[in-house]
Amino acid sequence: MPPPRLHLIRFHGVLAPNAKLRALVVPHGPEQATGKSELTATESGCTHRRPARISWARLLKRVFEIDMEHYPNCGGQLRIIAAILESAVIDRILTHLGLQARVPPRVPPRVPARGDFQQAA
Question: Cα 49–50–52 angle (5° rounding)?
C-alpha cells in the first residue's frame, strides 16, 4: 500500500510538469484546439485559469453519453426545476411510477467449492 498523497507515476524529460516543451507534446483540450487559450490575461496583468472542475452534466455526457443539457426531442436547453432530497418523497415518487423504491439487499459472497481451486504443480 503506497503512502497517502504519493504519486505512483512520475514523469521525466519532456513530460515533466515544468518542462518547457511539454505544451508541444501533450494533447490540448477542446478549448485550446479552437484557438482559445487556457490562460486569460486581465488588465492588471495577472492570469486566471479556467475552473478545474467539470460540471456534472458534462461528466454524465462524457461517461454515459447522456446529454443532460439539451432536450432530446427538440434540442432545447434543459434546466433543473427541483432537487428532491427527502427519502420519503423519493419513495412515494418511485412507487407511483411502478419502480422499486428500495435498493435490493446484497447477496453474501459464495463459498468456493473444494474443487474450484487448482493447485500448481
Answer: 100
Tally: H helices and E strands in the chain: 4, 2
- Cβ neighbourhood burial of 107 (10 Å; 0-12, 13-18, 19+): exposed
Contact (Cβ atoms closer than 8 angstroms) between residue 77 and residue 71? yes
For residues 35-61, one letter each, b for 16 or more C-beta atoms within 10 angstroms of the residue's C-beta and e for the rest, the string is: eeeeeeeeeeeeeeeeeeeeeeeeeeb
In 3-state terms, what secondary structure has residue 91?
Answer: helix
Domain that holds residue 18: 12-52
Residue 3 lies in a domain: no
C-alpha cell at 11: 514523469
Within 10 A of 118 (CB to CB), how many other CB atoms are there? 6
Q: What is the pLDDT of residues 42-70, one digit of tens each?
A: 444 555 566 677 878 888 888 888 887 88
Q: Answer yes or no: do 81 and 66 share one domain.
A: yes
What DSSP state is assigned to residue 77? Answer: B
> In the prediction, which pLDDT does 91 show?
92
